[in-house]
Amino acid sequence: MDNPPPKIVQGYKFNIFYPDLIDKSATPEFSLKPCADNPEFAVLRFHAGPPYEDIAFKIVSREWEYSYKRGFRCHFHNNIFQLWFHFKRYRYRR
Length: 94
Hints:
With 94 residues, this protein is mostly beta strands. It has one domain (11-87). The protein is 0% helix and 44% strand. It contains no helices and 7 strands. A hairpin with a 6-residue loop joins strand 2 (29-34) and strand 3. The relative contact order is 0.28.
């Protein structure tokens, strides 16, 4: 009650497990494309290669914070692809 959750999306965390990758040297990739029907959303697509198909998520289309200090993470380690990011916050200043 004293600390309610935020009313807007602050960021996303994706942890995707790829245990059976055929080519261990090729790391999974992600791509971000704007949504055709609504400009407020974008499609985040993960591509890993065989034997996996692509995975796509519809997310809010805002500018990302790419600083590791602010929580950005894009790693592929121990067959887990991690993509964590927060959106930039624009503060009102007089």
